[in-house]
Amino acid sequence: MTEETLAQQILDAVEQGFDAQIAFTEDLIRFPSLRGAEKPAQDFIGKALEARGYAVDSFVIDVDKIHDHPGFSPVAVDYSEAVNVVATHTPRQATGRSLILNGHMDVVPEGPHEMWEVSPPWEPKCEGDWLYGRGGGDMKAGLAANIFALDALRRLGFQPAAKVHVQSVVEEECTGNGALACLIEGYTADAAIIPEPEDEMLVRANCGVLWFEVHVAGHPVHVREAGTGANAIEASFRVIESLKAMTEGWNAEKVNYPYFEDLEHPINFNVGKIEGGDWASTVAAWCKLQCRIAIYPGDDPKMRAAQIEAHLAKDLAGDPFLGNRPPTITWNGFFARGYVLEEGSDAEAALADAHRRATSQELESFVTPGYLDARVFVIYADMPCLVYGPITENIHGFDERVSLSSIKRVTGAIALFIAEWCGLEPIVPQADAEGTAAHDGYRPDRGGLSQRHARHRAAHRRRLRRASRRDPAAASRGHRRP
What is the pLDDT of the chain when averaged over all its residues? Predict the structure, then answer.
């Protein structure tokens, strides 16, 4: 069997399992796995992985284990239901390179349901080439792709010839502490893949992110005496404008950061939520702004946080009210560095080849100004992390949708990558009378994966022949499922 023939068989196996894959993705979408409510979905995916025979580890994020790590982001919420799921495949003999297949189960809030036009957010719907539903693109389609890529190999009678960890994590949308907790628990590998919604491209670099709350205190009075009070909500507008001005200064620094100099606006500031006041007829006594801002790779989150605090203190010093009662800042989420994926790794070359076979296109890379859990692997585990996933639209918005044909292509590329990166060994539940595996008809004859696989199979047969001369029953034992 040639390498091209095996690659086509892998893509055909993805096709054969695709209806089941989309049904599984739809099942995941039906879980409203918002922050703090991910556990039912995590239980579901854990059982699905366990049913496939993987060793499954479900564990709650332990803040005490991770809070001193430089990659930790501060939290003020209860983690008692913040469950990570890690399923592990262990080969009979590790001859390839190990791999982490990572994805996140948490999704962002869906907003008013009446503003979803195609289908309610938790009711997945396929229409044309699109699968609709909150979290379908970001990133439950990717979670399913990881699992069904492995399923496709098993459908052909193969499994990875290296250890593979399939991770479903939480907290990706707010802290990154889920992926960090997996690393602290000891889950590492030679490379990682995260099939985030990246339009079938590879992320070369991405920004770090800071989350913070700004609290503005006002001076409440009856509205009939409004001129004698100070409205915290109105004062917050001046805080927002000050932070916007600071953001433009940060964007001007892009010329100092490789890969970011050509982006139009790499540093984005956002006020995602605002609340304040107590009564329509009372001048607002308080206002809280929930804010997010990006930072460049290489930036220290502590230094950028200090810059924000210093900027507001200086810029608002002359404000008639805020100068005497400055806003306070609480760091309440992402405190995360950005990263750069260095060019030229073996993992990237393997993905480029897999992408080419699955899509008939060359792999492109790009820079994104959003957060990715890849920073955990690249910065703190020194491993290449390939963020590469399907075409999507409207993530974090109404009518979020993911391309069905793109899911299939990405799943095929992941399966091909696993075959090349990890190598393959046959699944051998029984042996025939001569001690040869049920899938002994696979005869790779050239290049890359095929040569490594051929060497493994030849060595395996030699061990069985030597064992059978010593003990006639040994050949049968050599093919027993571990």
Answer: 91
Distance from C-alpha of 236 to C-alpha of 463, rounded to nearest angstrom: 74
Is residue 434's pLDDT more than 50?
no
Which pLDDT belongs to residue 2? 81
Neighbours of 412 (CB within 10 A): 26
User: Measured between alpha carbons, how far is 160 from 452 in angstroms, rounded to an integer?
Assistant: 12
Tell me the per-residue pLDDT of 93-143, one tens digit each, with 9 for 90 and over: 999 999 999 999 999 999 999 999 999 999 999 999 999 999 999 999 999
Quick check: 464 pLDDT over 80? Answer: no
Beta bridge partners of residue 437, listed in sequence order: 431
Render pLDDT for 179-228 as a digit per residue (tens, 0 to 9).
999 999 999 999 999 999 999 999 999 999 999 999 999 999 999 999 99
pLDDT digits (tens, 9 = 90+) for 334-354: 999 999 999 999 999 999 999
Angle at 329 between CA 323 and CA 331, to 5 degrees: 165
